[in-house]
Write a structure and sequence with these properties.
heterodimer; A: alpha/beta; CBS-domain; 4-stranded mixed sheet; 3-stranded mixed sheet; 20% helix; B: alpha/beta
């Protein structure tokens, strides 16, 4: 095990003065559509329709993130394989990252989502900046 | 004498639930900010001095720092 970093990064509970600080893991949407490399993009796009997500995450059989199909790639009529259409190696964040810290990284780049994974790279969900309530 | 070995999060959870003592050896401020639930605190610099009085020599112990266990 990689110490406390690995423990909290795995989304496990912690105690202490900063334990109540909002973390991205608690905001991550867990039911994001997933795809395999050999899937057809059209099939994935049809699954993603109506799911409330604008992306599908490409994972290995063990659930490790391999890539992402963004809105432009999710074309229902496409017969391409996922491995040809995905953006490989997207940035991922651990669930214990403070919400404010990630917002400060994403917003200047006009990014509105980030993948959340375990330290081993297994998909946990997708964090959307829009899901964070604005603080007056 | 027992040999230290690395273990995963799932093993830590199971052993902790079974009553195995978990020891955080990070400095005071870091322990106060965050620690594994139920972990006792013995800073690394005081480990040799405090371990005999706070830990049972015949019981397994899980020890962790920031990025290793």
């Amino acid at each position: 095990m990689g110490g406390r970093l690995d423990w909290s990064g795995g989304g496990l509970p912690i105690e202490g003065e900063k334990a109540q600080e909002p973390r991205i893991g608690s905001f991550a949407r867990r039911d994001v559509p997933t795809a395999r490399l050999r899937d057809t993009v059209g099939d994935v796009a049809r699954r993603a329709e109506g799911s409330g997500f604008d992306v599908a995450v490409v994972v290995s059989p063990g659930g490790v993130v391999l890539g992402i199909l963004d809105p432009k790639a999710l074309v229902v009529s496409s017969t391409a394989r996922v491995e040809e259409a995905m953006r490989p190696g997207p940035a991922t964040y651990r669930p214990d990252v403070p919400v404010q810290e990630l917002l400060e990284k994403l917003r200047p780049k006009h990014l509105r989502r980030a993948l959340v994974t375990t330290p081993e790279g297994r998909l946990l969900g997708v964090f959307y900046t829009d899901d964070v309530p604005e603080v007056a | 004498m027992a040999v230290p070995r690395q273990i995963g999060r799932d093993v830590v959870q199971a052993m902790s639930a079974a009553g195995v003592v978990v020891v955080d050896v990070l400095p005071d401020p870091e322990y106060e900010e965050e620690h594994i639930p139920g972990a006792i605190h013995i800073p690394l610099k005081k480990l040799d001095a405090l371990a005999p009085e706070r830990l049972a020599p015949d019981r397994p112990v899980i020890v962790y720092c920031y990025d290793a266990l």
